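User: Design a sequence. Structure:
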């Protein structure tokens, strides 16, 4: 009797499981002839959402609310040509269309277009060129997409046709103002590498009295971070009186849009106060075909961005806007990606900069590549166990609640683009740190589907981009040049576990004695991502104050380290 009961229960469970899946779904995607007779290469993406709160293309994420997406490469796509999405096309979070529960969905297709690059290495690669949006596949000008339509997917066969008849329009470039200037320059170094003209840009904030004091030469603050559409955190007027308060769940704050405008206006007032130091601040635009910025270092697959920024862009800006133009007068700061860049650039170019302020930096020790030790772990996605299969987390909140795993996030990237072409976080680390493969694309640090780690590639990463290892290996040469220049800040509940690598870096720095690094490492109690060293204010406030909070430390550093005869007066007017 009990055996019959359990067998019946098993059959019912299996039937229920099968009934929640579709058996055969086919979606045929094409683009309208009204868009012209151009042929396209790229990544064709099919998206489905259970709600119409926004277009499906804006609802794709690794978080708990992320919707469905499937992707495949296309080459030479012509108008009217139909590309079929069937059960064999890889997707996220369901790996196959057959796994989708029956129901109503809003469907949308988008073609993320690729261009062909003939690299100086002799390779030909196809990649998405940034078009002024900062490598956002769902907003990139020139990409084709369809208007969302509501469809029903049944338990049996479902056949759906989607026609892309829209093109994302160009983005207007920001206009110069009295305070903020925008520059764009061709990089000879990058143009040679990529086989076409490549440009670097920057938004330059001018000091009070810039026009009235032509004799002044200024120190330079370089803010590293994700692609800035304009100079951030700057506003010359009070908050809009009719602004409808919004709610930001990340910080559990009402009216954060008003707070942001107020902080930007407060910075404008501080910038104009009599006692605020007169200096230049720049935010750099250096998107690559792999990401919204280059990570500001030289790399095999992205080219010499470190040299281009340090030896082409920075001197060009200093010449245009009367920068002092010497290493003692340049300072680096930023958070997250920008935090890693600030520290990496300081380490790679120790004489060209006089201090870095690295907040919540991306992994600076690859023994703690978030929660993976790429040198010792065999698999990035699962903890080692004989009988259990436990996934490695990727994101948490300050209480430890997990919203995504490392496997799921990497699988989403694999849908968005193969060969490190997703334009997302784990792929850009690969594009920056890995050697170039025989096909011209970055070599995988691990199998993107299984998570199995390639330890030969890990050794390449170690020798070239593991910042803690490089400092320890080369401290005899680097130590004297970096004394007093390294400042690192991180929340001890960083959402991406970045504090683990900071602990390892701190262990090394505090053990150095010849010379002692004489810098600073600090942590925010229960602070999440983007904590930047402010022990007085909550994270949602301090993250808006990068442009002014490090100024006192910079001024102290200048006083202690400026060489004899340095210009310490021309820029100190009131």
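Assistant: Done.
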């Amino acid at each position: 009797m009990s055996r019959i009961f359990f067998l019946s229960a098993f059959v019912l469970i299996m039937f229920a499981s099968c009934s929640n899946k579709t058996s055969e779904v086919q979606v045929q995607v094409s683009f309208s002839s009204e868009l012209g007779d151009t042929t396209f290469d790229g990544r064709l993406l099919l998206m489905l959402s259970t709600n119409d709160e926004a277009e499906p293309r804006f609802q794709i994420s690794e978080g708990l609310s992320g919707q469905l997406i499937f992707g495949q490469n296309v080459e030479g796509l012509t108008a009217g040509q139909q590309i079929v999405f069937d059960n064999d096309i890889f997707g996220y979070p369901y790996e196959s269309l057959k796994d989708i529960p029956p129901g109503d969905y809003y469907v949308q297709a988008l073609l993320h277009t690729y261009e062909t690059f003939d690299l100086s290495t002799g390779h030909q690669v196809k990649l998405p060129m940034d078009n002024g949006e900062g490598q956002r596949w769902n907003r990139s000008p020139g990409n084709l997409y369809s208007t969302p339509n509501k469809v029903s997917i049944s338990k049996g066969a479902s056949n759906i046709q989607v026609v892309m008849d829209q093109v994302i329009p160009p983005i207007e470039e920001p206009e110069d103002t009295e305070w903020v200037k925008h520059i764009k320059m061709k990089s000879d170094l990058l143009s040679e590498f990529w086989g076409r003209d490549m440009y670097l840009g920057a938004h330059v904030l001018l000091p009070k009295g810039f026009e009235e004091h032509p004799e002044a030469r200024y120190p330079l603050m370089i803010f590293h971070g994700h692609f800035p559409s304009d100079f951030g955190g700057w506003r010359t007027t009070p908050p809009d009186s009719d602004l409808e308060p919004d709610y930001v769940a990340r910080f559990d704050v009402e009216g954060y849009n008003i707070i942001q405008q107020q902080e930007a206006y407060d910075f404008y007032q501080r910038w104009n106060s009599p006692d605020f130091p007169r200096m230049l601040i720049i935010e750099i635009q250096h998107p690559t075909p792999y990401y919204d910025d280059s990570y500001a270092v030289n790399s095999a697959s992205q080219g010499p961005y470190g040299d281009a920024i340090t030896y082409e862009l920075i001197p060009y800006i200093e010449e245009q806007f009367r920068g002092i133009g010497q290493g003692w007068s340049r300072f680096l700061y930023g958070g997250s990606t920008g935090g890693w860049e600030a520290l990496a650039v300081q380490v790679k170019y120790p004489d060209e900069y006089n201090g870095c302020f690295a907040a919540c930096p991306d992994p600076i020790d690859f023994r703690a590549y978030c929660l993976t030790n790429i040198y010792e772990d065999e698999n990035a996605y699962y903890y080692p166990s004989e009988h259990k299969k436990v996934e490695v987390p990727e994101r948490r909140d300050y209480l430890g609640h997990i919203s995504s795993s490392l496997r799921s996030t990497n699988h989403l990237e694999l849908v968005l683009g193969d060969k490190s072409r997703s334009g997302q976080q784990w792929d850009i680390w690969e594009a920056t740190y890995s050697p170039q493969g025989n096909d011209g694309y970055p070599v995988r640090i691990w199998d993107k589907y299984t998570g199995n780690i390639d330890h030969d590639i890990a050794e390449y990463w170690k020798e070239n981009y593991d910042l803690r290892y490089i400092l320890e290996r080369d401290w005899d040469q680097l130590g004297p040049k970096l004394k007093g220049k390294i400042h690192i800040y991180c929340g001890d509940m960083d959402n991406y576990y970045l504090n683990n690598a900071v602990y390892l870096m701190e262990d090394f720095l505090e053990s150095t004695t010849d010379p002692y690094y004489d810098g600073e490492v600090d942590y925010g109690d229960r602070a999440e991502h983007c904590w930047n060293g402010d022990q007085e204010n909550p994270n949602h406030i301090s993250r808006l104050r990068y442009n002014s909070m490090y100024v006192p430390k910079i001024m102290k550093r200048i006083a202690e380290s400026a060489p004899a005869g340095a210009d310490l007066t021309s820029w100190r007017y009131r």
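The chain has three domains: 23-167, 180-365+467-561, 379-462. The chain is about 25% helix and 25% strand.
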